[in-house]
Structure formats: structure tokens, C-alpha cells
């Protein structure tokens, strides 16, 4: 799975484009962000990518978590956003199957 690192200075539109680019090759990508500003930019990028990909019939799901990252021999805790993509038809079929169970 490809990992995209997001900083507080990252452009959310460009990160969203990178998300869409990775998801065109693979069905998942991970964003990593350390600090409130970086997490803010990462979440904005997810929202922009979601809107863009929805127009193409692709739904994305974001799974948040924590990640330990070693920077200059110091362990920092960051946020990871795992993004998984699927076609809208697949998601709707899965929802119907789950509600029938």
C-alpha cells in the first residue's frame, strides 16, 4: 500500500489528486500526518477526493488510526488515514446483502 505523507503546508487539492491517482492503480492508499495542521489538510484532501471520485462512481471509506513514526531518532505519534475505494454498485450490493442478513 502506498503511503502519502501530509504536512500542514500540503495543498489539499494536490493531495486529493494524488489520492485519486493512487486509487486508479490500487484500491487503497494511506495518508500519514503529524500535528493538527497536517491532520486538517489530510482530512480536507479526503473530502475533496471523495467528491471528485464520487462523480466517477467510486466511493471511498476512510479508516483513521494512530501511527508511530521515527523522525531524527525520536518517535512521534501521528494520525493515519487508510483510504479504501470501491465502485458504488459494489457498495450498494453489499449494503443490501448486509441488511437482509
UniProtKB/TrEMBL annotation:
Query: What is the top-level taxon of the source organism?
Result: Bacteria
Where are the annotated coiled coils located?
A: none
Q: Which Gene3D superfamilies match?
A: Alba-like domain
Recorded GO terms, molecular function?
nucleic acid binding
Which InterPro entries does its entry note? Answer: Alba-like_dom_sf, SpoVS
Q: Return the protein name.
A: Stage V sporulation protein S
Q: Which organism is it from?
A: Kosmotoga arenicorallina
